[in-house]
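Bumping my old thread because nobody answered last time. Still need a sequence for this structure:
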């Protein structure tokens, strides 16, 4: 059975909710490593050399494609479904994030060619980075999981200021709420609270 674009944007109501397994607890305070990754904007980019004082990165497992069936078992993995809504939410909040001084980047372990199709289809106004070789993933010890023999990032986001991670959202659920939480945190780091 094929899926249309609408199905990529929707999330079933009965998805399992991810729990905090502590796999991102170590990230706060870590410095962004100087690792160049291929970007959908062309060329390679290092998060450590981004000129913006504030860097926002959201990580997602993998996006689907229109008319390609969602793999069997994908929806049973807590937090896996919802990569298109996750990307769309950051796209829709991009203007607010920019006003707050943040440079935004998506990150997955998919290839740049695959990401290019998604970035163009969703009209993302910022680069998506490919960590297909797991260089940044391993350097930061980002949480991952395996699906059908493929290693993928667990969904999370983080804010770095002056090259150091100061805020982490993990686990992220629902995916479409992540960008709004980051905006709220940037507006008021002391007062922002996660949705229960």
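Sorry it took so long. Here it is:
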């Amino acid at each position: 059975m094929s899926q249309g674009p609408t199905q990529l944007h929707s999330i079933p109501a009965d998805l399992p909710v991810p729990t905090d397994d502590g796999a991102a607890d170590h990230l706060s305070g870590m410095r962004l490593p100087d690792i160049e990754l291929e970007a959908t904007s062309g060329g390679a980019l290092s998060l450590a050399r981004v000129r913006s004082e504030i860097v926002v990165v959201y990580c997602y497992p993998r996006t689907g494609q229109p008319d390609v069936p969602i793999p069997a078992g994908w929806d049973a993995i807590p937090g896996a479904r919802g990569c298109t809504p996750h990307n769309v939410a950051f796209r829709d909040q991009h203007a607010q994030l920019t006003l707050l001084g943040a440079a935004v980047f998506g990150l997955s372990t998919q290839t740049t060619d695959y990401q290019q199709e998604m970035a163009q289809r969703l009209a993302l106004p910022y680069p998506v980075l490919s960590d297909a070789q797991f260089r940044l993933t391993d350097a930061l010890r980002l949480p991952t999981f395996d699906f059908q023999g493929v290693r993928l990032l667990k969904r999370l986001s983080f804010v770095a200021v002056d090259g150091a991670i100061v805020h982490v959202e993990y686990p992220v659920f629902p995916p479409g709420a992540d960008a709004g939480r980051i905006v709220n945190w940037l507006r008021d780091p002391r007062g922002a609270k996660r949705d229960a």
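The first helix runs from residue 5 to 9. Let me know if any region looks off to you.
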